[in-house]
Q: What sequence folds into this?
């Protein structure tokens, strides 16, 4: 009566999000190290260019597919599952990207000591 949930898509989406997450991490580390060597050349907020946006988009697409496949496990059809997960993923992606910009701004203004997480 009900079609099988897309377990393979859920695993593939998860693995693609993990793989592009490593690419994002590497790109971010390289960009911040380059900025740390010459902070006057550009601002940290400017490093959020295509070298970070492309892996971030890959993370978001992987999360979108994983979340939609997970929703389908609970009996939703594909169209509503992908619509719900698109809204959730877009909101999450916007919030994380905005927070990344805020953190990079704090680092630029006060250095790495501006992120004193122990004070919270």
A:
């Amino acid at each position: 009566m009900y079609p099988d949930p897309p377990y393979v898509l859920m695993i593939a989406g998860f693995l693609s999000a993990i793989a592009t997450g490593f690419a994002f991490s590497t790109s971010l580390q390289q960009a911040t190290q380059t900025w740390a060597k010459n902070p006057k050349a550009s601002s940290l907020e400017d490093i959020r260019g295509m070298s970070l946006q492309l892996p971030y988009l890959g993370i978001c697409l992987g999360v979108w597919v994983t979340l939609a496949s997970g929703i389908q496990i609970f009996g939703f059809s594909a169209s509503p599952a992908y619509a719900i997960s698109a809204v959730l993923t877009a909101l999450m992606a916007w919030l994380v990207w905005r927070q990344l910009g805020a953190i990079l701004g704090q680092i630029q203004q006060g250095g790495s000591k501006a992120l004193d997480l122990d004070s919270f």
Observations:
- Helices lie at 7-37, 50-73, 78-110.
- The chain has a mean pLDDT of 85.
- Residues 7-114 form one domain.
- The two ends are 52 Å apart (CA to CA).
